[in-house]
Amino acid sequence: MTIAIRPLHPLFAGEVSGLDLRRPVSPADVAAIEAGMDRYAVLVFHDQPIDDEQHLAFTKAFGTPQKGSNFVAKRDSLRLDPVFADPSNLDKQGKLRDRFDATRLGRFGNRLWHTDASFWAQGAKYSLLSARTIPPTGGNTEFADMRAAYDALDAATKAEVEDLACEHSILFSRAQLGFADFTAKELEDNKPVRQRLVRTHPVTGRKSLYLASHIGGIVGWPQPEALAFIRDLIEHATQRQFVYAHTWSVADLVMWDNRQTMHRGRPYDDLTYARDMRRTTIAGDGPTVAQAAA
Ligand code: OGA
Ligand code: MN
Question: Does residue 141 have its Cβ closer than 6 Å to ligand 1?
């Protein structure tokens, strides 16, 4: 089968046709998808009614899956195998979570512009999100092109950001939502890691801004100045001309490159309607910058 990719946005994001993800993909298809990811950074596959096993098999064609993050959610309450991240509003019994459910509240982190797993030193390469059940309205996922956002910076800002390193921790993004008083174990398990603010794509050589809600500081900067600076950069990088908004259909699979994009989930009536989404993640190649000495 030969695949085709149709652009969905002037800058990035493409729709892939000519593949059935329930079946093993050929090396040629994998190479074509990887080339598509390098070019488009977000790829949409429609009409892919896959199960978890097929989802995982497709994921493994692109590298080593890493476990989902589970801030707040306790392992014994996980609905899915730990290799899946679960951005749904469902509990282990498949029931809608209550308004004050701790796992529901932690998942509001997905509403902030972020990249997946930047708070782990190895970062993440691709994420693959599959829609099993969707609400009647709302619940889009938006993507922003961090290459275009970098390109659009003025020369002075490009020079200023070129060699900066940021501190990332999932606790910084949760603090933005009002989570506080982290336990000693949470602090120990979620120590900040350093990532370059400007990264270069290993294949295309394009530079991009490695931004995320998980950033809580810039190495060598006073924290308030760093946070104000990062806030401005995120505002710049998420202007509408850099954003593709994906409206989900059941059985869509969307794959994005965390090294070149940010994303966020949009609201929906999660107390009334189920939204069953499942995500796998390919581990990144390693830290983008040396870590602080322990
Ligand atoms: C994710 C995520 C947003 C959404 O799965 O990584 O951020 O719209 N999801 O579910
Ligand atoms: Mn995410």
Answer: yes
Q: How far is the CA of 71 from the centre of ligand 1 (A)?
A: 14
Instruction: Give pLDDT tens digits for 227-274.
Output: 999 999 999 999 999 999 999 999 999 999 999 999 999 999 999 999
Atom of ligand 1 nearest to the CA of 266: 8
Is 85 near ligand 1, meaning CB less than 6 Å away?
yes
Q: What are phi and psi of 148, to 5 degrees?
A: -65, -40
Which residue in the block uniquely carries the two structure tokens 């994420």?
A: 127
The two three-digit tokens of residue 127, written as one number: 């994420």
Q: Give 61-70 pLDDT, tens digit per residue.
A: 999 999 876 5
In-domain check, residue 18: yes
139 belongs to a structural domain: yes
Number of domain units in the chain? 1
Tell whether 293 is covered by a domain: no
Task: Check which CATH number belongs to the domain holding 108 and give it.
Answer: 3.60.130.10
Q: Taking the model in full, what pTM does it have?
A: 0.97
Residue 123 placed within a domain:
yes
Q: Which atom of ligand 1 is nearest to the CA of 281?
A: 6
Q: Which among 67, 258, 264 is the best mutation to test ligand 1's pocket, defined by most ligand atoms within 8 Å of the CB?
A: 264
Of residues 285, 225, 276, 287, the one with CA closest to residue 49: 276
- Domain extent for 53: 4-283
